[in-house]
Amino acid sequence: MEAVQRANRGHALPYGLDDYTVRLEHAMSDLFDHDVVVRPVFGGTGANVLALSCLARSGDAVACTQVAHIAVDEAGAPEHIIGAKLIGLPHVNGKMSTDDVRALASLRNSQHHAPAGVLSITQATEYGTVYSIDEVRSLVSAAREMEMRVHMDGARIANAVASLGGNRDTLRQMTSKAGVDVLSFGGTKNGLLFGEVVVFFDRALAERSMNLRKQVTQLPSKMRYVSAQYLALLEDDLFLQLARHANHMAADLHRQVRDIESLQIDQPPAVNSLFPTLAPDVKRDLQEWSFFWDWDVSQHLVRWMTAWDTTPEDVQMFAAGVRERLAR
């Protein structure tokens, strides 16, 4: 908010011609140790739609897991706006396999199928798991064998880096140096008021991005307010500090409630999410007291998320509330 206030002083050119957005592209190039093109947008779905619009050719399909955000939680936006078919791959705890990517070869060279032209990897996954650097590299390699381009949905990319105990080099190894073409770099799940950025590691793929950003309604006129926030987020690697904190708070919550057998959360979380099991009456009571989302109603699973601003006191209070309500 302080960065937005500073950006609000004086006047600036619109549509990305401001100094903040120019500086952001330089800062992102330094972050990834790669000459990148950066396109700020309004939000996460818009970031994914713009990225996929630039990657998918006419007639292409986009492959992702069956539980990917672009497939489940974006109201069909990629298919509706881009016109590309989404192919849902099997997953284990949110992660796809290279064998399933290679199996897409059966769709090629047939006039009856939409060939998979893009692979979308979510890091961290919807199930709170994290691909290792080697796993990302293997998926990119398999995609290249299929002549596919690669998008990474990094709504929680900072949490994934922090989970691997990493720094800027870890981020580079799982993105620019792994062969990812385009990254949706998340900010709103890591403290921003609004706004995300699409990072192009292949400048050729960014050639149409300015026009397509406008076409998919993701061109902010006052772009400096998005860019200024990201500059603050990158300063002294604040984005990693905030992500580590969120991850640690989830680990602390797990430590405080893992002995409750009915929750069925034996394994500590990789990032900032837990997926406990709650009986319907207990769930409703807890949600009324401190709201959280359902995850899989058929399995009585819910999702508990910690955030960049969750405090140890918040965790302690919530854990005590869970115990009190389960004891009723």
Strand content: 5-15%
User: What is the H/E order?
Assistant: HHEHEHHEHEHEHHEEHHHEHEEH
Number of helices: 14
CATH level 4 superfamily of the largest domain: Type I PLP-dependent aspartate aminotransferase-like (Major domain)
Helix percentage range: 40-55%
| Main CATH class of the largest domain | Alpha Beta
Largest sheet: 7 strands, mixed
The average pLDDT value, as a whole number, equals: 96
Please list the strands of the largest sheet in the order they lie side by side: 1-7-6-5-4-2-3
Dominant shape: globular
Number of strands: 10
SS-derived structural category: alpha/beta
Q: How many domains make up the 3D coordinates?
A: 2
CA-based gyration radius: 20 Å
Distance between the termini: 42 Å
CATH topology-level fold name of the largest domain: Aspartate Aminotransferase, domain 2
Q: Can you tell me the CATH architecture of the largest domain?
A: 3-Layer(aba) Sandwich
Could you explain the architecture of this structure?
With 328 residues, the chain is of the alpha/beta class. It folds into 2 domains: 2-239, Type I PLP-dependent aspartate aminotransferase-like (Major domain) (Aspartate Aminotransferase, domain 2); 240-326, Aspartate Aminotransferase, domain 1. The chain is 42% helix and 15% strand. It contains 14 helices and 10 strands. It has helices spanning 2-7, 19-32, 44-55, 69-72, 77-82, 98-102, 133-145, 157-163, 168-174, 209-215, 224-234, 238-257, 280-289, 312-326, and strands at 37-41, 61-65, 85-89, 116-122, 149-154, 182-185, 196-200, 273-274, 293-296, 301-305. The strands form 2 sheets. Strands 1-7-6-5-4-2-3 form a 7-stranded mixed beta sheet, with helices on both faces. A 3-stranded antiparallel beta sheet has the order 8-10-9. The longest helix is centred in the last third of the chain and has 20 residues, at 238-257. It starts with a helix and ends with a helix.
